[in-house]
Amino acid sequence: MTEFTPIPSLLGGLLIGLSAAVVFVFFGRILGISGIVARTLNFDFGSGLWRPFFLIGLVVSPVVLSMIAPSPHGFEPMGLIPMMIGGFLVGYGTRVGSGCTSGHGICGISRLSKRSIVATCTFMTAAVMTVFVVRHLFESAL
Amino acid sequence: MTQIIALVLGALFGAGLYLAGMTNPSKIINFLDIAGTWDPSLIFVMGGGIPVAAIGYSILKKREKPLVFDDIQVPIHDVIDQPLVIGSVMFGIGWGVSGLCPGPAFASVLTEPTIYYPIFDQLSSR
Fold this sequence. Notes:
- The structure holds 2 protein chains of 2 kinds.
- By secondary structure, chain A is mainly α.
- Chain A has one domain (6-141).
- Helix content of chain A is 74%, strand content 0%.
- In chain A, helix 5 crosses helix 6.
- Chain A is globular and about 55 Å long.
- Chain A starts with 5 loop residues before the first helix and ends with a helix.
- Helices cover 63% and strands 0% of the residues of chain B.
- Chain B has one domain (2-124).
- By secondary structure, chain B is an all-alpha fold.
- Chain B has helices at 2-20, 25-32, 41-61, 82-98, 102-107, 117-124.
- Chains A and B meet through helix 1, helix 2, helix 3, helix 4 and helix 5 of A and helix 1, helix 2, helix 3, helix 4 and helix 5 of B.
């Protein structure tokens, strides 16, 4: 169980959207984390090193925030095995599929990209089915 | 200047993920668990993020070039191909198993070092 948090989630969504909007207007680029990470790891840092600097901001800001105010949501990770399997599939899948929740789910849908709409519907459906199988078929069978 | 802007935008994005609850894997799993302990919060994340991003994109479309860079690099092809679908299925399964997508995984790198404890346990036990 996690608590339904419409207000923090909406405010968080607005900040995410604002960041994506400014990346569009200032940089003319897609704010997609899987793409930014992959390109940075390939030493393709982008004009003015914007990609690694964006990642530094992304990694550091939650630390600063957590010192000021603890997260209203907590942190309950899955176990080692799900994290390793998940990490591999998330990393590989987002490269093959050219994007993740930010690049397809937020930026792509916001510009009504057909590819991003298909990608988002696909990964949402796959994720919902996975959770159903893991939680309701697999775990209840144990 | 570009670096400072990029740093601030990354920080803004990270703060958004943190505030929204995206960095808690259990919250993601519960969002995806529509047949069980469903937590619809993440609909509000997308509901807040997509319209604001759309405003940014509509401003960009009216311009010849972005404010800082000289060219626009936004994909224009619209073909639904096999890699798009297969990759998205793989990502979806991974997201459903772990509760983390790339953004929140990076946003948790320093705040939640406990995420790595099982790995250290494994490494130190041999």
